[in-house]
Amino acid sequence: MKPFIFAKQLLWVICASLFVFAFLCDSPMSILKGMIQIVQHPAGLIADNFAIGGVGATFFNAGAIMAIALLLFELLKVRITGPGIACVLLCAGFSMFGKDIINIW
């Protein structure tokens, strides 16, 4: 198996685990309410999404942004290398501190 294919699969597993962890922490209704609060919050440079929307919504937001980054890699047919892995994981990390699915566009 080529290393970059393994890296892509590993990133998708991490993304899926963020979604699973979100639903283990909170109910779907609580995640939906938290996501609405996260999206509506006027995020400055840094905002604590854990305090704004809760743990489940924060991890759901991280999974959604990571999935968007991975889908962009797929759409553009980019080979995932070290900087690409760092990019996707940074997107997931920053989504816990102020970035959401609306303001990344």
Task: Describe this entry's structure for a reader.
The chain has 105 residues and is mostly helical. The longest helix is centred in the N-terminal third of the chain and has 23 residues. It has five helices and no strands.
Set down the secondary structure blueprint:
Elements: H1 3-25, H2 28-40, H3 49-53, H4 55-75, H5 82-94
Mean pLDDT: 89
What pattern of helices and strands is seen along the backbone? Answer: HHHHH
Structural class: mainly alpha
Number of helices: 5
Count of strand segments: 0
Strand content: under 5%
Shape: globular
Rg from alpha-carbon coordinates: 14 Å
Query: Regions with pLDDT < 50 over 5+ consecutive residues?
Result: none
**Major sheet size, sense and barrel closure:** none
Approximately how much helix is present in the residues? Answer: over 70%
Cα(first) to Cα(last) distance is: 34 Å
Summarize the structure.
71% of the residues lie in helices and 0% in strands. It contains 5 helices and no strands. The model has no long low-confidence stretch (mean pLDDT 89).
